[in-house]
């Protein structure tokens, strides 16, 4: 079989793009956006049901839609997009051909098929088992089958990624270490392998149980192994969006990490210790010892948390250093004020960083602390926390990078530029409201996955304070705003990709590249993305000030929660 | 021209091979990392967790 070695050198970035890789990046990105569309419509329905004054859907539909929202968003939208990121970070950033494009297409087909099968199961109406599908609650066999088929596809895609790393090395398209962004993608892919393997270990027996071939699934065993899958998959997201932060800093500012060594080390901490934090989902489960819980939720002495802080510090820090070098040196924050806030690639990325750190990170450490977890366990605080991480953090970062991908990979101009400019702000404002008010309501005890917090008609009701209802209402308003922001994103991307103005480059051609020719990084973007070494400068006072604000907020909030805990169970 | 480029790059990378710290060698090998990234959580989380669950005495 002839190997396709057709490349084009991107006139915008100077990156060398392999033809089949490009087609696969497009296909996976399109599938991601379609999933986001489905998940977004469902998000609106869920939000309007949890908004007490609206209370839109009947109970059975609420649980159906909630299940479908969780899966389409957290699994299908995110993972399709991540596969596109993996192909870009390997083939395009290493300037080498994608290994086994046919296999990659097969993987893509499996993923599409799996997504369809799973949605079929949920929309049948007998699989409203929520995203977590805890046994012994059973779904239709196609529910598990769909997830398994999807996961097999994703696993194959990961191996295509690893294969591409080998191709790049063998054919010597790069020298020395892979670029930092690729290293971040490697981190994501490694975590993905563990994630998918854990998913297989638990979902295959559960599937067999659903068709009657296995007669019992132990619920604690299910929850323990399922979270090795469910939680680790969030860490794929973190690694992927952190890699995108670095990429955007390089693309827009030519920024180099403050120290490449430190950044790589932080990724290594992710590889080693991020995944064990899955134990935070089992903190109130009896049967597992505190030794196991505490060691695992500590992310190994919080090393992986520190790693996140390193990334959160070095990305803005490197932007600050790059901006200061351009002469924006006044005061602490001129570099930030004069940043391209009108460019959605930047604004989206920076707000992703802030939202992930301040809202997602801090609330995550609170929830992950065994003693504090009990205050908020299974309240709507939990979705408040993870919408800050996977929506403000991951989804917003993916949205931001899309505005780069449209011209660079799809070779189209971004349609409705004004709308694109506003999109990250609308989405961030709405989503920040969702997160904050969910956390607020959760602190007052409002449960998650609950159709009616008035308990109307129940003999054993509970009366939540008026404040809780107010918070849920404000969450609803924020949710609608976020859906508007999401719709703006969909409108811009779908229009650009299918109807947008083609970017024409005179004399442009696909060129066959002889094996082994190292690419000459010709243009600033590719040079920055593929460069090595840090600036070695730590003179970023603005970022340092931001970090101090972060730490202060963190410490204060941490102690407020301990104080709160002491009032929940007073020692008298 | 491609041939020439190739020789130059291989020379450069051979020279680079020497004097690379051990840690960098590890970080440069995705398969060592893959191994570590799968083994650590499998041992600390999955195996240890499953052992604890299996060890719970069954009610009579
Ligand atoms: C416009 C944006 C969004 C809005 C307004 C929204 C709103 C909501 C609401 C109100 C809930 C229900 C909480 C409950 O009743 O327990 C929910 C659940 C959830 N959302 Fe979103 N969401 C949005 C986007 C996303 C995205 C982008 C993701 C993933 C990347 C996501 C992942 C989830 C998950 C996993 C659940 C939990 C499902 C379950 O409990 O099984 N959401 N969302
Ligand atoms: Cu988790």
List low-pLDDT spans of chain A: 516-521
Structural class of the helix and strand makeup of chain B?
mainly alpha
Order of helices and strands of chain A: EEHHHHHHHHHHHHHHHHEHH
Helical content of chain A (DSSP H or I, runs of 4+): 55-70%
Shape of chain B: rod-shaped
- The average pLDDT of chain B is 78
Run of helices and strands of chain B: HHH
CATH architecture of chain A: Up-down Bundle
In the sheet with the most strands of chain A, the strands line up as 2-1-3
Structural description of this entry:
The complex is a heterodimer of chains A (572) and B (60). With 572 residues, chain A is mainly α. Chain A has a single domain, classed as Up-down Bundle (Cytochrome C Oxidase, Chain A). Helix content of chain A is 69%, strand content 2%. Chain A has 18 helices and three strands. Chain A has a three-stranded antiparallel β-sheet with strand order 2-1-3. In chain A, a hairpin with a 6-residue loop joins strand 1 and strand 2 (16-18). In chain A, 57% of the residues are buried. Chain B has 60 residues and is an all-alpha fold. Chain B has a domain at 21-60. Chain B has helices spanning 2-17, 22-28, 30-54. The longest helix of chain B is centred in the last third of the chain and has 25 residues, at 30-54. The relative contact order of chain B is 0.06. The model of chain B is unreliable at 1-11 (pLDDT under 50). Classes of the chains: A mainly alpha (572), B mainly alpha (60). Chain A binds chain B through residues 162, 165, 172, 175-178, 183, 186-187, 190-191, 193-194, 197-198, 218, 220-221, 224-225, 228, 232, 264, 268, 271-273, 275-276, 278-279, 287-289, 292, 295-296, 300, 514, 516-518, and chain B through 2, 5-6, 9-10, 12-13, 16, 24, 27-28, 30-31, 33-34, 36-38, 40-42, 44-46, 48-50, 52-53, 56. Residues 231, 234, 278, 280-281 of chain A line the site of copper (II) ion (CU). The site of copper (II) ion (CU) has 5 residues of chain A, from loops.
């Amino acid at each position: 079989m002839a190997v396709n070695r057709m490349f084009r050198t991107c006139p915008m970035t100077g990156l060398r793009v392999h033809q089949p890789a490009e087609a696969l990046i497009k296909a996976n990105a399109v599938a991601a956006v379609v999933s986001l569309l489905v998940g977004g419509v469902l998000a609106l329905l869920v939000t309007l049901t949890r908004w007490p004054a609206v209370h839109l859907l009947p109970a059975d539909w609420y649980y159906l839609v909630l299940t479908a929202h969780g899966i389409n968003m957290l699994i299908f939208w995110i993972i399709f997009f991540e596969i596109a990121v993996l192909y870009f970070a390997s083939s395009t950033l290493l300037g080498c051909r994608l290994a086994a494009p046919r296999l990659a297409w097969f993987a893509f087909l499996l993923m599409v098929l799996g997504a369809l099968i799973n949605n079929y199961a949920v929309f049948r109406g007998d699989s409203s088992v929520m995203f977590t599908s805890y046994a012994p609650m059973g779904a239709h066999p196609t529910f598990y089958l769909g997830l398994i088929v999807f996961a097999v596809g994703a696993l194959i895609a990961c191996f295509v990624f690893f294969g591409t790393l080998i191709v790049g090395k063998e054919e010597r398209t790069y020298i020395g270490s892979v670029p930092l962004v690729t290293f971040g993608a490697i981190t994501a892919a490694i975590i993905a392998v563990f994630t998918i393997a854990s998913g297989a270990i638990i979902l295959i027996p559960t599937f067999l149980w659903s068709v009657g071939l296995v007669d019992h699934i132990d619920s604690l065993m299910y929850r323990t192994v399922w979270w090795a899958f469910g939680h680790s998959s969030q860490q794929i997201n973190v690694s992927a969006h952190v890699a995108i932060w670095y990429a955007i800093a390089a693309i827009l500012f030519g920024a180099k990490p403050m120290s490449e060594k430190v950044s790589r080390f932080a990724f290594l901490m992710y590889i080693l210790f991020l995944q064990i934090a899955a134990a935070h989902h089992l903190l109130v489960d009896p049967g597992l010892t505190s030794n196991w819980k505490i060691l695992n939720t500590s992310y190994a002495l919080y090393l992986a948390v520190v790693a996140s802080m390193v990334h959160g510090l070095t990305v803005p820090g490197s932007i600050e250093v790059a901006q200061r070098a351009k002469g924006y040196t006044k005061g602490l924050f001129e570099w930030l004020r004069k940043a391209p806030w009108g460019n959605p690639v930047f604004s989206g990325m920076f707000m992703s960083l802030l939202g992930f750190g301040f809202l997602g990170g801090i609330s995550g450490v609170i929830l992950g602390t065994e003693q504090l977890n009990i205050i908020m366990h299974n309240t709507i605080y939990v979705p408040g926390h993870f919408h800050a991480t996977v929506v403000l953090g991951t989804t917003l970062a993916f949205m931001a990078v899309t505005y780069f991908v449209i011209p660079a990979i799809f070779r189209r101009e971004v349609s409705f530029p004004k709308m694109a400019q506003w999109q990250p702000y609308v989405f961030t404002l709405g989503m920040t409201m969702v997160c904050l008010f969910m956390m607020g309501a959760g602190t007052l005890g409002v449960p998650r996955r609950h159709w009616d917090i008035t308990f109307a008609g129940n003999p054993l009701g509970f009366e939540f304070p008026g404040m809780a209802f107010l918070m849920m209402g404000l969450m609803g308003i924020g949710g609608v705003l976020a859906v508007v922001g999401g719709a703006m994103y969909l409108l811009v991307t779908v229009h650009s990709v299918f109807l947008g103005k083609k970017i024409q480059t005179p004399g442009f051609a696909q060129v066959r590249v002889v094996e082994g020719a190292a690419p000459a990084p010709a243009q600033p973007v590719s040079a920055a993305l593929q460069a090595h070494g840090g600036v070695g400068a730590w003179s970023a006072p603005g970022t340092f000030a931001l970090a101090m604000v972060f730490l202060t907020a963190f410490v204060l909030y941490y102690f407020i929660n301990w104080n709160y805990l002491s009032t929940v169970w007073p020692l008298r | 021209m491609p041939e020439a480029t190739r020789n130059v790059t291989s020379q450069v990378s051979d020279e680079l091979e020497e004097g690379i710290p051990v840690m960098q060698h590890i970080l440069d090998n995705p398969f060592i990392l893959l191994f570590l990234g799968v083994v650590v959580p499998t041992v600390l989380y999955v195996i240890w967790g499953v052992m604890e669950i299996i060890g719970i005495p069954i009610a009579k």
